[in-house]
Amino acid sequence: xxxxxxxxxxxxxxxxxxxxxxxxxxxxxxxxxxxxxxxxxxxxxxxxxxxxxxxxxxxxxxxxxxxxxxxxxxx
Length: 75
Fold this sequence. Notes:
The protein contains 2 helices and 3 strands; from the N terminus they run βαββα. By secondary structure, it is of the alpha+beta class.
């Protein structure tokens, strides 16, 4: 399962809904992406505001980073 760390303060229902939508979108794109060596998925860090979220991925090694680049088209 993909882990999330949300650093953005939740101020109300709208912010929580937007964060959940962001998480669903990320989860759908990264489901099935695992490190071929360690069998781990990335940890997603969401910071910033709902208007300008900063999304970062923590990975166990370069092999997972490469798998994520292929999955997201960031090659």
